[in-house]
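Hi support team,

I submitted a single chain yesterday and got back a structure, but I'm not sure I'm reading the token output correctly. Could someone confirm the output below corresponds to the sequence I sent? I've pasted both exactly as they appear in my results page.

Thanks,
R.
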Amino acid sequence: MFNGKMKAITFSYDDGVTQDQRLISLFNKYGMKCTFNLNSGYLGMPGSLVREDVTVAHVKPRAVEVRKIYEGHEIAAHTLTHPMLPALSDEEVVRQVEEDRLALSEIAGYEVVGMAYPGGGQNHDARVANLVREKTGIQYARTIISNYSFEKQSDLFVFKPTVYHHKEWNEMERLADEFLSLDAKTPAVFYIWGHAYEFDIGNTWDAFERFLQQIANRPDIFYGTNKEVLLNK
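Hi R., thanks for writing in. Yes, this is the structure output for that exact sequence:
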């Protein structure tokens, strides 16, 4: 159970970009909690990305700004420099994850225990997951493989989110309707992930606010960070 409730909603957003601040203002407005996965090796760096023929800002906040920006939410690891972990040696996988975790723990002022695997496609494998489990202080690690399910998962080191907000918007809305009407007899988690800069691609900020308004303030739902929901901490 989640603080006495059978249902929980949690969010996870990657890369640690300045658009997170606008997203956090929406989460705070509607009483939502989110986990933000940061690359400590890139903090303070400017940049941009071209996605779907649209150029969007990909600017990282400075380390001194991070604690204030993400206050009330969870900071989690995303590796130092966002490499494809399956291509790295065992030692480099551990270094990328654990040094990021330790750096972010110092910045956040609390122990960082979660992460999201960086990169698209095959961004993790059994070897990488076992290294994270056995050689780092990480306690859960999220993949990018949607499972379109609310069921409890046994292996938190290959945790599958319910849905990816940007590429699967219609599925996200369908699943929200299903989740809101669900009379859960066992713990159920609706887990949504993405990148905040993706709202700039199609200017979907207003649509996402309407989605948050739809799912907010339900007495039978716990709204928590990944750590609160997955680890009950």
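A quick pointer for reading it: The longest strand covers residues 7-15. Let us know if anything else looks off.

Best,
Support desk
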